Amino acid sequence: MAAELRFGVVGLGIASTQILPAFAELDGVSVTAACDVREEGLTKFKSEYGGETYTSVEDMCKSPNVDAVYICSPNHLHAEQVITAAELGKQVIVEKPMGLTLDECEAMNQAAERNGVRLLCGHTHSFDPPVRKMRELVVGGDLGPLRMVQEIVELESLTLGQVKLAISPCNSRELQDEVAATLVAVADNAGVEILVAGESFTFNGDRQRVVQALVNLASNAIRFSPRASRVTLSSRTLDGAVCFQVRDSGPGIAETDIDRIFEKFQQVDNADTRIPGGSGLGLAITKGIVEQHGGRIWVESVEGEGSVFQITIPIRA
Questions:
Q1: Domain span at residue 270?
Q2: Which end of the chain is more exposed for a tag (fewer CB within 10 A), N or C?
Q3: What is the per-residue burial (b if ≥16 Cβ within 10 Å, else e) of 63-101?
Q4: Do 91 and 198 belong to one domain?
Q5: Are residues 205 and 300 in the same domain?
Q6: What's the predicted TM-score (pTM) here?
């Protein structure tokens, strides 16, 4: 094995955004390869770290420039990937949870022992007594609903600029279609038609994050729209940006409330129109996503006539 431990990373998702910078700061360790099924992720890795890129774990593990493998892919892939790496003589670190079943974990341990390699799993505190007690309180309902915890963490990360955008070419119509498909069941249950209209425009943005922003806006529109009404998703160009519009036929927003609805934990408090179930964070998160792209968000609304939420994403983000 080389004096410097050379890692290949499997999975370039959210976990890797923390792992790769940490590796870069360690003495005696380097990241020489990455494996992922997404071409944009591999292209980004290549530009930032200059290592080899692969779409096959087996091919990456055959590289003479990889001594050890760090697996941070989706959990259901861990067992197969760990065993593949071990069979090819690579030291392995796998993110928690190690596997989906005890049989998978045992198979991984056996592969490591059989091939004389080390297998290390990221430490988990899930079974520590304080954590187990906390789980009892949550499951028992003693603490009430905790749905917004992840949203608070995400909003804080956006506010601090800690969310790294995966910029790639996007098509506005394709994103609108994806949002409509995501929410069609919700719309059907609410008795609301969701319609996609307008032309297609190409821009550079983080597809997943833009879809998230539009889903937030469209789901709000559905929640506040009366039955047998329509929510329309459309897009246009505006000042060098793609402008997405989400139009509803809901109760509208009072002029005095418009300035504050994009702040966290804010909802319109009109007793006649407020719909229970929201965390008060969706619009703040959407605002953070849009602003990180260099865009802006606003709403045009008249009480009793509905609202039109609009976001812009610069064509060259």
A1: 167-314
A2: N
A3: beebbbbbbbbeeeebbebbbbbbebebbbbbbeebbee
A4: no
A5: yes
A6: 0.53
